[in-house]
Design brief:
The protein is built from ten helices and eleven strands. It starts with a strand and ends in an 8-residue tail after the last helix. It is α/β, with parallel strands linked by helices. It folds into two domains: 88 residues, Leucine Dehydrogenase, chain A, domain 1 (Rossmann fold); 128 residues, Rossmann fold (3-Layer(aba) Sandwich). It binds nicotinamide-adenine-dinucleotide. The site of nicotinamide-adenine-dinucleotide has 24 residues, from α10.
């Protein structure tokens, strides 16, 4: 391995510590801590684990956690009522509705019902539009975490060639917009792109957000490039437990790249750290306070 291993776990821990400190100061000023409400509908085990991790991180960040667990049979109207109540609840600065929602519920409608000022996931169309227009808003946590790692690794991204593989609304598209706002030259590649290997070979920065195990090979990587692997894929193993791998063939890519995120321990922990950061920022804005520094 020649590449530097980017330690997302350590970066995330440092951010969460700064958030906790700032959240305690916020509580001293206003008489209550920043608050994050989570909404889990149904019993998807992966979603339940994510929500539990987010609740634990919220408490560790000296913030208030309001957990709402609803049965999969809840109606869309009931869920919209809950979102409305959380919008009106002064103790709640951030609202996170865990996706996916049951099929009978219109996800877009639920996201659009969240107060954009409390939309700490950054999925509301208004926040997505503000990012597109280069205006202040709340930005999706995973791409925000990737950008944080890239800037810590590279400093200025101005003029660098960046390739984002994947164009989802929650990762690929906002990632491309963030890189553009940092003056990188951005290419968005996706399932219909021709000769993906050749596109990736030009990149100083590669962000892979595809959901295909080890699709990006070592010989696609330009020597010295910085590789951010968003993918989380479980592949089968002989012991039946399975193993997590990213969208990048790690060992191959690490032999060529300048720096690379591992899976797990790279982007994943940053996503939760950025959720804490977004909740803190939302609380400050709602209270009319200046933005917390260094976050
Ligand atoms: P998605 O399924 O919504 O989007 C995948 C994108 O990949 C699509 O835009 C598609 O065009 C592109 N794609 C599919 N096959 C391709 C191919 N052969 N070549 C090039 N592009 C191709 O997925 P998503 O929600 O953006 O998530 C992507 C991955 O990131 C998944 O593995 C997911 O688990 C992971 N993820 C991780 C975190 C984290 O916190 N680390 C957060 C969100 C998503």
């Amino acid at each position: 391995m020649t590449a530097r291993r980017i330690d997302g776990k350590a970066s995330a821990a440092a951010i969460r510590e700064r958030v906790a400190q700032s959240a305690a100061e916020f509580a001293d000023r206003i008489g209550r801590p920043p608050g994050l409400a989570t909404v889990l509908v149904g019993e998807d085990p992966a979603s339940a684990v994510y929500v539990r991790m987010k609740g634990k991180a919220t408490a560790e960040a000296s913030m208030a956690s309001f957990a709402h667990v609803l049965p999969a049979t809840i109606s869309e109207a009931e869920l919209l009522d809950l979102v409305g109540a959380l919008n009106d609840d002064e103790r709640v600065d951030g609202i996170l509705v865990q996706l996916p929602l049951p099929k009978a519920i219109d996800t877009e409608k639920v996201i659009a019902a969240i107060d954009p000022a409390k939309d700490v996931d950054g999925f509301h169309p208004l926040n997505q539009g503000r990012l597109f227009a280069g205006l202040e808003g709340l930005v999706a946590c995973t791409p925000l975490g990737c950008l944080h790692l890239l800037k810590a690794e590279l400093g200025s991204l101005a003029g660098l060639d960046a390739v984002v593989i994947g164009r989802s609304n929650i990762v690929g598209k906002p990632m491309a917009m963030l890189l553009l706002s940092e003056n990188a030259t951005v290419t968005m590649a996706h399932s219909k792109s021709r000769d993906l290997a050749a596109i990736v070979r030009r990149a100083d920065i590669v962000v892979a957000a595809v959901g295909r195990p080890e699709m990006v090979r070592g010989d696609w990587i330009k020597p010295g490039a910085t590789v951010i692997d968003v993918g989380i894929n479980r592949i089968p193993t002989d012991d039946g437990k399975g193993r997590l791998v990213g969208d990048v063939a790690f060992d191959e890519a690490a032999a060529v790249a300048g720096a690379i995120t591992p899976v797990p321990g790279g982007v994943g922990p940053m996503t939760i750290a950025m959720l804490m950061r977004n909740t803190l920022v939302a609380a400050h804005r709602r209270a009319g306070f200046a933005e917390p520094e260094d976050l």
